[in-house]
Amino acid sequence: MSTEIHKLIIIGSGPAGLTAGIYAARADLKPIILEGSQPGGQLMGTSLVENWPSIKSVMGPKLMMDMKDHAKSFGTEFISESITSVDFSQKPFTLTTNKNNVLKTQAVIIATGSSPNRLGVPGENEYWGKGVTTCAVCDGAFYKDKKVVVVGGGDTAMEDASFLKKFTKDVTVIQILDQLTASQAMQRRVLDDPDINVIYNSTVTKFEGDGQHVQKLTFKNSKTEKEETLEVNGVFIAIGMRPNTEPFRGHIELNKWGYVEVTNHTKTSIEGVFAAGDVEDYRYRQAITSAGSGCMAALDAERYLAQLSHSS
User: Tens of pLDDT along 71-114?
Assistant: First the structure.
């Protein structure tokens, strides 16, 4: 086990973690980024990104590789491992990786993001990022006058369906229950719209396409057992997100949905441990807001470490 005590370790390598790395490296904190099991985060599974300021259109993986190169250019060190356990009970903090690498650090930024809940049906993985996605705000503009389907019945699904109406009048919602679960106001927005069709008591059973893009889906009615096929150009799965906080459970305060609880923007319940991006943000969930919170976490970590050095 190494006896070196690092100044700052950033857990996660999506927009939040990489932006934190850029700011921390420029502040000479010599940060280490633990990339995790999905280096680059959710954008690695996204095709075109058209809402990143100053870049009219860029592939998601390219944007993330450019951010990684940017962080590297200032001296950020990358380790291709995931965190399996932490000890925040005493300082310096101890992090253990999936390769039994034990790291000691004075400060931590948790930027492990969240993962969309998936349906787990045939064709879903094959067409993920090829017409099957979770972010209507990110990808809705690609489906002007196209056939789109939203899977889910909660507030997010209703928001997605309403948002997609800006681009197309062919919107179908598939809900597993016999009613929607969204708030009444959100339900009414969808149910009162003649262009949005809601299919109840149904589950998507498979996706099919031409190998490049999804073209149709099959759904099954749970009451009649009847299967039907829909031609589609885009499918938005809105059945919730799952924050990647498992290694921190019991070591840091989480809210009732499992997201890291923060106060004063990035501070967690443990002094010296900060959080940024989708691991604590269940409202906006955009690359640009994640990057912004990564910047804030790095600045807060820098101030914390400066105070540590002054008091020691």
Answer: 999 999 999 999 999 999 999 999 999 999 999 999 999 999 99
pTM score above 0.70: yes
Residue 139 is among the residues annotated as catalytic for this protein: yes
Strand segments (E) across the chain: 5-11, 32-34, 48-49, 58-59, 77-79, 83-87, 93-97, 102-110, 114-116, 132-133, 148-151, 171-174, 196-199, 202-209, 214-221, 227-231, 234-237, 241-243, 273-275
pLDDT at 47: 66
Catalytic hit among 66, 87, 138, 300: 138
Q: Is residue 295 annotated as part of the catalytic site, yes or no?
A: no
* CA separation for the pair 208, 113 (Å, rounded): 29
Give the pLDDT score at 312. 63
Classified by CATH at the fold level, domain 132-237 comes out as FAD/NAD(P)-binding domain (3.50.50)
Domain 5-116+241-311, architecture per CATH: 3-Layer(bba) Sandwich (3.50)
The single residue of 87, 139, 192, 210 carrying the catalytic annotation is 139
145 an active-site residue? no
Selected catalytic residue, list 28, 69, 87, 135:
135
Closest CA to 108 of 128, 92, 85: 92
In the chain, where the domains are located: 5-116+241-311, 132-237
Q: Do domains 5-116+241-311 and 132-237 have the same CATH topology?
A: yes
